[in-house]
Design brief:
12% strand, 119 residues, Rossmann fold, two-stranded parallel sheet, 50% helix, mainly alpha
Length: 119
């Protein structure tokens, strides 16, 4: 099973061929990624599409507690030479905690453990 970062979900929506093999997977993401996705869809496709995906995913979002946040910021600090966003760090740590592979197209994560990279 996979943790879908925002990048991965957007590529699924855009029907990127590299993400076709993930079409049948259950999308698991975080509440933060859902917010980021909502904004991106609102901006690129409008409120109707953003609401559609919010409704599809809101029952499958993982919530984030303070332990995940502090572990994510420790990870970000240890990797401060990379351009990791707060949300991506939280998602990466959350995926690890739940035993999920972190699915992304973000090149900064490409060679990290527990990452499935698809461009």
């Amino acid at each position: 099973m996979y943790f879908f970062d925002t990048y991965a979900i957007i590529e699924l929506i855009k029907e990127n061929k590299s993400y076709k093999k993930y079409n049948e997977e259950i999308i698991i993401t975080s509440v933060l990624n859902l917010g980021e996705l909502y904004y991106a869809l609102l901006k690129d496709f409008g409120k109707e599409k953003a609401d559609e995906w919010k409704n599809k995913l809101e029952s499958a979002v993982l919530h984030i507690d303070t332990e995940i946040i502090t572990d994510a910021m420790l990870f970000k600090y240890k990797n401060k030479g990379k351009n990791f966003s707060f949300i991506d760090c939280a998602g990466y740590i959350l995926a690890r905690e739940y035993g999920l592979k972190f699915l992304t197209g973000d090149k900064e994560f490409k060679y990290l453990p527990n990452v499935e990279f698809a461009k």
